[in-house]
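Dear V.,

Thank you for sending over the compound details. I've combined the ligand you provided, pyridoxal-5'-phosphate, with the protein sequence from our construct and run the structure prediction for the complex. I'm sharing the raw inputs here so there's no ambiguity about protonation or stereochemistry in the SMILES, which I know was a concern on your side last time.
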Amino acid sequence: MPFIPHTEEDVREMLAAIGAPDIDALFDEIPATLRCGKLKQLPQAMSEMEVAGLMSARAHQDGAPVCFIGAGAYDHHIPAAVWQLASRGEFYTAYTPYQAEASQGTLQVLYEFQSMMAALTGMDLSNTSLYDGATALAEAVLMAVRANRKSKSRRVLMPRTVHPAYRRVVQTIVGKQGIELVELPFDPAGGHTDPAVLAAFDGQDIAALVIPQPNYFGVLEEVDALTDWAHTNRALAIAVVNPVALAVLNPPGEWGQQGADICCGEGQPLGAPLSSGGPYFGFMCCRQKLVRQMPGRIVGCTRDLDGKVGYTLTLQAREQHIRRSKATSNICTNQGLMATAATIHMALLGSEGLERVAAACHANTRSLVQRLGTIAGVAPLFHRPVFHEQVLRLPISADGVLDQLSELDLLGGLDLSRDYPELGDAILVCATEKRTEPEMDDFQQKLQMILTC
Amino acid sequence: MPFIPHTEEDVREMLAAIGAPDIDALFDEIPATLRCGKLKQLPQAMSEMEVAGLMSARAHQDGAPVCFIGAGAYDHHIPAAVWQLASRGEFYTAYTPYQAEASQGTLQVLYEFQSMMAALTGMDLSNTSLYDGATALAEAVLMAVRANRKSKSRRVLMPRTVHPAYRRVVQTIVGKQGIELVELPFDPAGGHTDPAVLAAFDGQDIAALVIPQPNYFGVLEEVDALTDWAHTNRALAIAVVNPVALAVLNPPGEWGQQGADICCGEGQPLGAPLSSGGPYFGFMCCRQKLVRQMPGRIVGCTRDLDGKVGYTLTLQAREQHIRRSKATSNICTNQGLMATAATIHMALLGSEGLERVAAACHANTRSLVQRLGTIAGVAPLFHRPVFHEQVLRLPISADGVLDQLSELDLLGGLDLSRDYPELGDAILVCATEKRTEPEMDDFQQKLQMILTC
Amino acid sequence: MLIYQQSRRGRRAAAQAPLQQGDLSGIPETFRRKQRADLPQVSEMQTVRHYTRLSQQNFSIDTQFYPLGSCTMKYNPRGCNTLAMLPNLLARHPEAPADHSQGFMACLYELQEMLKEVTGMQAVSLSPAAGAQGEFAGVAMIRAYHEARGDAARTEILVPDAAHGTNPASAVMCGYTVREIPSGPDGDVDVEALRKVVGPQTAGIMLTNPSTLGVFDRRIEEIASLVHEAGGLLYYDGANLNAILGKVRPGDMGCDVIHVNLHKTFSTPHGGGGPGAGPVGVSKRLQPYLPVPMVAQSEGQYRWLTEGDCPESIGRLSAFAGNAGILLRAYIYACMLGGEGMERVAEYSTLNANYMLKRLMDAGFDAAYPERRATHEFILTLHKQAKQLGVNTMDFAKRLLDYGFHAPTTYFPLLVPECLLIEPTETESREELDGFIEALCSIKQEAEENPELVKGAPYNLPVKRLDDVRAARELDLVWKSDKNT
Amino acid sequence: MLIYQQSRRGRRAAAQAPLQQGDLSGIPETFRRKQRADLPQVSEMQTVRHYTRLSQQNFSIDTQFYPLGSCTMKYNPRGCNTLAMLPNLLARHPEAPADHSQGFMACLYELQEMLKEVTGMQAVSLSPAAGAQGEFAGVAMIRAYHEARGDAARTEILVPDAAHGTNPASAVMCGYTVREIPSGPDGDVDVEALRKVVGPQTAGIMLTNPSTLGVFDRRIEEIASLVHEAGGLLYYDGANLNAILGKVRPGDMGCDVIHVNLHKTFSTPHGGGGPGAGPVGVSKRLQPYLPVPMVAQSEGQYRWLTEGDCPESIGRLSAFAGNAGILLRAYIYACMLGGEGMERVAEYSTLNANYMLKRLMDAGFDAAYPERRATHEFILTLHKQAKQLGVNTMDFAKRLLDYGFHAPTTYFPLLVPECLLIEPTETESREELDGFIEALCSIKQEAEENPELVKGAPYNLPVKRLDDVRAARELDLVWKSDKNT
Ligand SMILES: Cc1ncc(COP(=O)(O)O)c(C=O)c1O
Ligand SMILES: Cc1ncc(COP(=O)(O)O)c(C=O)c1O
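Below is the predicted structure of the protein with pyridoxal-5'-phosphate bound, written out as structure tokens.
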């Protein structure tokens, strides 16, 4: 019996100890009317070898096209050590570290994670993860509305330059609590949120302003002006950032005069494989004074009976298992293993390594855009500086071009027409540090070929 | 600096402590005339990411053709747990367990390995590994000659049905010590070593007789008669066996009246991936009275100061680091990690699992041979029972046929003409438990197509 | 020692970053970071050694028995990990087009189908990232259903007192107020109390059955009709599904929506706190509201169902398709079990739990519900020990760690005083259960003979008992280089 | 507890074997096994738990500093493991035809070229499975060379007394008798003694330089010409190559044949006792005798060189091409180092060794060769401590384990009494070295103040000091179910 160790003798003796005639008798409290039959629609059991064959075939079927898509999920190199360590049974199969003394490994890792995330974002502190970047933003919005005692409005300004899926997720999650998301338009030339558009809200009761950096188009926002506007208007500033970009960009803790209040984002670029979109992890950092509004687990350093340093989950009174309907969030199981991987990833890269990664991505994307820009009808759509993604205008329907590239085993970027029809035939491209010169040349040639056919 | 942790400050202070002006000064005892320049022929350093790209490309280039070759290396399913455990740093990066108290993990695993190998072969004891099956046979021959005090001849009978590469390796290794290998012919109809051929050696001084089971052609030998002949003639009987086959075949410890004296073989089928031929491991088991002639490491169970059970390397006086020129072998580093993997593999399979594997291989090979036998001109060459390999006659040159199959991404078996020209156009095929019905059908169709073109 | 304390200025794992420093001139100075972030500066070997050693300071399924009630800490097959991490699967971008996605989507589609079968529900969406997000999605669907019918009066969600904390928290996140329903003395929901509060303001009830009291609610049909008749819907918290696989299906109990914790019943790893996955299944009337994306199949081709295909969907719960890698692990696990194997899960986990309960009762422990069958878990109460000996549940729990066993769930459900919620799972052997039973008995004896010993536990772990109060009072959440730890 | 002790009749990890019992009717009863082998009958989780726990009872590079002299226990990059285990590489059959082998063979070919460059030799064969097999191959080539010249009188191989035990053992396996050459008081080979024994019976000499005495033999050129003039050849044991990479090359020292321990210098893992790899490099005159197979390249195509291509080859050393997976790991490591990185290996390993030697001498330890530079390793002798305090080297070694450090090599080389051969390698940080130095100093103090404490060590490991004599006298090599362990 796969994964069941019982011998026939065990079963016999255990039933005897219980005083039950057979295993089925143990289900005698279930009303007979409800008892179902066999699970016939389920397939027959397969051995590990058979599933291995199946999964290999399926993986093979999908291939491994060269990837120039970013759009919220980035193809970075992950040091081999990261997952060799994170997959160790002691990390991989441990539960949430409720029994602190028996979980010092995970707890210390998470304390280090918090320290690293705080350092990277320039914020005071961090939690140990949320589901993903989109839900982290939703939680940040809820937290800001809770925390902003000066505001009564439950109105939050949300630039259209924020990842479209994030905006949808935020809507799904915060909408039920009567929070209103007010969309901010983007500058059609710069692809950024012109701080001038905020003038329309001057003096209004706004709970928070969301500020992406870089934004969905890869463009760098005027984060200082936006942050200062928020604070001037008694709104909280919520940063939503790419953590790899922070290796080179000014961290949210230092935006404007006072820095952002809450900083969140998608942790995937820190050691999570693309893996069809998950598991990734959301991160959230904030200023010290907001700590009791933070959702999710937090690890604190403490002492044991002998005065020795140790780590434990803390401020649990914020959480659902203690505070139930009054908790800061319903989150329970989060993305601990991904945070573990990210911790190892950051330790291996260090800030210099992460800076090199960021710089290589930036340089590669520029170099790609320059190559593609030599093709007639292909040009950057926005003029402002970008981090490692850029929107390109195509001379014909993006959809068809991308399909043809896909057939040639190359993912040429994301079609923006679904979410930004106003941009026309535009694609969002990204070249991480993993993309090579030959791969970029190849993209250029294939695109050229398609466009001249 | 990859893999070097020194900061500039470290270097400065360490040199100061030593009292050396620079690192180069530490090499001042090397005669200046010998000092070489830079290693210019070596390529520039690559990052892990770059090597990952290179290795993926090379792996991709070689593909993963469906494999019907056996011939000493078998494509078995290896439970995922085997290498996830064996790759754990504590096993993977440990040294030979000389400091027993700090190596109880490895030592206990190897003690369990010895126990399992002894159980599988029916012998009294086992060492902890030799390089591979071929060198294990060479060591077995040396050991037999050393151990057989009744024989003065240094002559060893070696059937031609033993793996040709093994025979070559044995020749390379034992030839220098004046040991003579006398080849025994095989029966052209049965593909086995007819015990009758031994009559020619009756009464001669023979140190040992090698007995393969199954033999290189997959054919089952008359092991009882061969073993008994050896013992009647005061020769030692050396079994060279496939360990998976032993799940269903009579173990060497029970061959004939007294059982084989030494049993060796290739451990690859017990958890080692095909991996281009290595690392695999040789195993060697023997009867109790030969233990002091055994080459390689042996682990013994003992007690610590408190009387607690523990494990340690034992009978080291056989080995080169103690006995130097009088050691039983020069072997030092062996294949410990592969033995570790094999131990986990055997624990997961158990004897029933291993029996199912063996049975599935046998059934698949029969089924393959039956399919291929429907093609005109294709037929088994030998009539005797086989384990999981079989020699097939082809109507045209095997070489060309196999090349064409290879182009169709199928490895159709091994061309026997290199080693057994007398067999004509013959191939050795194998279908392990991993081969599926569709793969076998595919083989049949492709072969049919090639042969009818 | 923290990784930070091994940091030295200028040290790094040089093979892990690009060898050439890229050109940042495209980013104007004003946007640039002025000072490098204070990440540790360590070598690759230091990192490997540090995290290898840290890992050894954890209890885990791969090293210890972990009878954590309602958490279903069963064996996580290693094959699931290996196969979900095949290179092409890891490399697949979430926005990869359909022609590079058929293999992956086939797995998700089949998993949806399997979950329909085991839960008896009409349709399934895999996207919730954990149980709590499944709850959110479920309650949001309930709300969407009532709203679609123009029924705005339903503002309340009923939650039994034994429910997990995520239930009320999720209901609140959906804009509902929560009303608690007491459990009766036999552990079943107090139907009379329920009857009193159910009404036109009732949007639904969130039931866990078997509940976290370790019993199967025998009046489930009655509860279902009570709520349904009042116009409310039935939410089923599937965290304890392990207990009933193939015996009874939530769909057959009249549930309208259910979440399944794949990191429990489907054996995906807990990872020290996630990631998990909490797919939701619904009855026909809630199908339009399922969260996107989902996978549809027609003529052997798979495609995503997104907002456009499902205009009434409650929407999207994460940027992409949820914890895809976890879904693959669950799929692989389900393939290895098959139908028969799935049924055995409930059988043997229930056998193990009842065996332990019986033997512990024989040994003098008090069961919270001694007259009831255990499901896959059961509750002991150490009330007596706490009162008579001053040794409480936490002391027992900590002392168990010294014996090499992870502690059961403690002090939950809140309504049973000094409780231990024990769930052995089907993957533990009888010898392991016997060892645990013996350990509990020894501790009981220790508590009687030498209570201080138990109250000072643990002794054999990397740290002794930790000061939680200090942790919360003197908040120390990030490392600072000037701190003298 | 042994895995056997967790075995129960009828239990098994059922997902790991074919689900259907295959048909064995093609194998007549007479060939069949009568009784199943006594392998453990355990569940998958029991196996995982057992071997995970056992692994935690090991010291290893990934957990501890391992200053094991002449063993070069440096960091084993995790990337080498991952990349050498890419699925297609693992799946490649050793008999796969050339069109399915070009990628793999390219790696081997390039590794051959790299080894030629770092050793300064003319040609390389990768096939030896470890150092000792490399030695065997090297001596066999020396023999083949003399035989080819019809020189049958050379029956002796010279081996310095500091040599590793494999050297004399390998020479004997090649049919030679061994004559030992003493070392001089400065650690270099005693050239006068050598001069006396070298002659027409000399087939060759096996030199380790730097030797296992931790010094570089300054008279190497003199030794080389002495032996060469007598018609003998020079074998170079490359186990200590780590010390001189990019500084001096064996080929430039006049060596005729060399083996390289990839599991030392090229950082492939030791695996608790292998697998390793011991490629051999030769000068022009020995090239024809190299063991097969090797990889040749022409016009961008790679092909195997086998017996047919190399008629004078000493032949084949293993069934296929040696420890291919280990060769890939070494290749990947070399790619990550490149030329410059390779030179740094010698520099920093030598820096580390000299730093430790100096500080330990300052702390009052006796160096075996206090006037000499350390190479990448050095020797302390605890003769004084043993005599005065009765605390010997083994006691120090065992006590070091308590401090969390693996012991250095003890009692080797045999000629230095009570010796510790210490090799820190380049991958250890200064802090780690300092920690080790402090530990040795504390133990010295303990030995002075409380010798019994040290003599009773270790105390903090899974077992206390083990009885080796009992192990050898009451041989217990396999588990028997009726044994009461
Ligand atoms: C009964 C019950 N419901 C819900 C949950 C929440 O699930 P998750 O932690 O996956 O969010 C849990 C988790 O422990 C639980 O035990
Ligand atoms: C100096 C020296 N030579 C040779 C060897 C033998 O190498 P291997 O163990 O790889 O056979 C060793 C191994 O320890 C060694 O230190």
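A first observation: The radius of gyration of chain A is 25 Å.

Warm regards,
I. M.
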